[in-house]
Amino acid sequence: MQYWLIKSEPDCYSIDDLKRDKKTSWSGVRNYQARNFIRTMKVGDLVLFYHSSTEPKAVVGLAQVVKAPYAEKDPDWSAVDVAFVEKFKSPVTLSQIKINPKLEGMPLTEQGSRLSIQPVSKEHFEIVKKSGSIS
After folding, report:
1. pLDDT of 135 higher than 60
2. From CA 74, how far away is CA 14, in angstroms rounded?
3. How buried is 110 (Cβ within 10 angstroms: 0-12 exposed, 13-18 middle, 19+ buried)?
4. CB 2 within 8 A of CB 119
5. Which among 27, 45, 56, 58 counts the fewest CB atoms within 10 Å?
6. Helix-strand-coil percent breakdown of the chain, rounded to 5?
């Protein structure tokens, strides 16, 4: 199993939208490195759902890959389907992530990390998940 972080602007598609829809196609990614990450995703992989371009920026819940990578209309680009798992009781803000020494090295904290899809270590995934599940 692999672990991921996906970014979405909440005014475009939020964790509440995913909860309502139950699952969605994660498509429209137009960065080659992020596309390559999509192509390595597998059914069952777990995903941290991150709200970007908002204040506060935060991991707000969990999703799971439920359909293996497939080509979009343009075969240069790929998508996966993700399903809602959980909305966190407490969002885990970017500021909280940056000051937690146990999350050092998480790609999200690196300068210039703008990728909409990023790999996450199991350890970092579990720390963020535990932090969000605590009310």
Report:
1. no
2. 25
3. exposed
4. yes
5. 56
6. 30, 35, 35
pLDDT digits (tens, 9 = 90+) for 10-47: 999 999 999 999 999 999 999 999 999 999 999 999 99
DSSP alpha helices (H): ranges in the chain? 15-21, 32-40, 94-99, 122-133
Tokens of residue 40, six digits: 């390595």
User: What pLDDT was estimated at residue 109?
Assistant: 86
Q: Which of 12, 15, 114 is nearest to 63 (CA)?
A: 15
Tokens found for residue 72: 């979009």
Which residues are bridge partners to 8 per DSSP? 51
- Nearest residue to 25 via CA among 98, 82, 89, 86: 82
Indicate whether 120 pLDDT > 80: yes
